[in-house]
Design a protein that fits this description.
Strand content: 5-15%
Strand order of the largest sheet: 3-1-2-4
Helix content: 40-55%
Number of strands: 10
Mean pLDDT: 78
Low-confidence stretches: 73-87, 199-205
Structural class: alpha+beta
Radius of gyration: 31 Å
Largest sheet: 4 strands, mixed
Number of helices: 20
Order of helices and strands: HHEEHEEHHHHHHHHHHHHHEEEEEHHEHH
Shape: flat
Oligomer: single chain
Length: about 500
């Protein structure tokens, strides 16, 4: 490294930032996104990359340095007062190495450290002097200042923050809190918070609902009002706030129901994009419908009715589309799956582009031609295997994943809807029990994403991470994602080669 020591203020707060700094300095850009390729050691301990630099310095480095200083003092028979405790602790030394390069690690690993906690003191004693503010009418003055400053929030924001900070310290003692309640401070502070939210969020919630007032009209998703509403920066924030306010609170959920917001939320949960509007709206509806069974939601039947109606409408559209395709081919469907020819000649056959030419969802029968922004995945089954000792000098053997698939495609959205339907059955099914039935009764425990040309990158990255989370649930694999995928491909090719050789041998 060209410069020593480095300041943590220049690098970042976490040990992961130290690792990234080393990668940048040594032109190891390929290891930036891989948390398992490089290990950091401090005082003979492997340090988790999620820990903060300050915590590691205080609880690992300084502790180790003080112990070594004490040992040196005892060995030289110096008095404890002569120990070099007066000088500052030297800069923390961080050793980096590539994982597995020298064999299996033998050093202890530190994954968690205690949070910095100062000695707690009774706030009634620590902030007792704040009682003087109450005794001399200071609380009334603070509330009057807040009421005056909030009228022009943007101009008086700095002064208002200072007054609220002083009021917060006054509330540390019980008598001041009781006095503020008698003075009506609660209503004043709530109104101040409402005004602050209106200023920071750029537009009130009512304006957002007006932007989505076109919901329910034919072709509303192609209107300018719908597009502008999705671009509002406050839309995802308001959805998250509504979810927090709705958890276990009947009055808030009644207000959402009476305000006819449920259809808006249901329309938004089908939106895909980088601002996560669809995911946040879906989480809010799950809360309202008591998905986790904690008794937090009271609108389960209405949410289910909306989702069922949409699913039925999508099924009807798919059937109409299928009928149109069959009609163009001179065919019609009778008795369920039976298809009969109505015209002997197939006019315009070359102009018909069927969805089945590419990947198609096994539930809705649509693919990237009809739903270009909805990510498709294939059901797969993975298991963790041990390569055995001696593969890379590792005594215990390295663990990787091996994966097989019948390549049955399904939209991630269709999978989630099917998962909810399985959980709502009289005899509920777990996620992968129902998926096994949809996968032609073949085992599966993951959904491998297959990105289309128009699928948003953020959506694809999120489901790739979800795929690896499913694999990590089987047990940790050794190495980076690229290494694990390479091993997976190699193992599949070996199995295929052995199968072909056996068939040639016996037949």
């Amino acid at each position: 490294m060209t410069k020593n020591p480095y300041s943590s203020a220049e690098i970042g707060p976490l040990m992961r930032d130290v690792k990234n700094k080393i990668c940048h300095q040594l032109d190891l850009a390929g290891l930036l996104e891989d948390d398992f390729s490089m290990e950091l050691l401090v005082a003979g301990n492997i340090i988790s990359l999620d820990l903060s630099i300050a915590q590691v310095y205080e609880q690992v480095w300084k502790k180790s340095n003080s112990q070594s200083s004490s040992a040196l003092a005892n060995s030289t028979l110096l008095a404890s007062s002569a120990v070099a405790s007066s000088r500052d602790c030297p800069p923390m030394v961080v050793t980096y190495r590539l994982q597995g390069l020298d064999g299996e690690a033998t050093e202890p690993m530190i994954k968690e450290l205690e949070e910095d906690r100062e000695e707690s003191q009774d706030p009634e004693i620590e902030f007792a002097i704040a009682g003087a503010v109450r005794s001399y009418g200071g609380l009334e003055m603070l509330l009057a200042m807040i009421q005056r400053l909030r009228d022009d929030f943007k101009s008086n924001q700095e002064q208002l923050v200072a007054v609220l900070d002083l009021l917060m310290h006054c509330c540390k003692i019980r008598e001041n809190r009781q006095a503020l309640l008698k003075l009506g401070a609660l209503g004043l502070l709530l109104e101040t918070a409402r005004r602050a939210f209106s200023v920071d969020a750029m537009e009130p919630a009512e304006g957002i609902l007006d932007s989505f007032a076109v919901i329910g009209k034919t072709g509303y998703k192609s209107t300018a009002e719908w597009a502008s509403g999705l671009k509002l920066p406050s839309t995802p924030l308001i959805l998250s706030m509504l979810r927090g306010l709705s958890i276990g609170h009947l009055l808030t959920q009644k207000s959402i129901d009476e305000g006819e917001i449920l259809p808006v939320l249901h329309a938004l949960e089908g939106v895909s994009g980088e601002n996560e509007i669809g995911a946040r709206a879906e989480n809010l509806l799950d809360t309202l419908s008591n998905k986790e069974g904690k008794g937090d939601g009271f609108l389960e039947s209405k949410v289910k009715m909306l989702r069922d109606a949409t699913r039925d409408e999508m099924r009807r559209r798919a059937l109409r589309k299928r009928e149109q395709l069959l009609q163009g081919l001179g065919m019609r469907q009778e008795g369920g799956e039976r298809i009969v020819v109505t015209k002997p000649s197939l006019e315009g056959l070359d102009d018909v582009q069927e969805e089945e030419e590419g990947l198609a969802c096994m539930v809705c029968r649509e693919g990237y031609s009809l739903r270009p922004t909805d990510l498709l995945g294939v059901y797969s089954y993975s298991k963790r295997v041990n390569l055995g000792a001696g593969t890379s000098g590792n005594a215990r053997g390295e663990c990787v994943y091996t994966t097989v698939s019948y390549f049955n495609c399904i939209h991630f959205q269709c999978h989630q809807e099917a998962k909810r339907a399985d959980a709502a059955l009289r005899n509920p099914k777990k996620e992968w029990e129902g998926a096994t039935l949809r996968n032609n009764e073949s085992l599966c425990n993951a959904l491998f994403p297959v990105r289309g040309p128009s699928v948003p990158l953020a959506q694809y990255v999120r489901y790739v991470d979800q795929y690896w989370d499913n694999l990590n649930a089987l047990g940790r694999g050794d190495g980076s994602r690229l290494r694990l995928l390479t091993y997976d491909i190699v193992l599949v090719m070996i199995c295929l080669f052995v199968t072909v050789c056996l068939r040639l041998f016996y037949f």
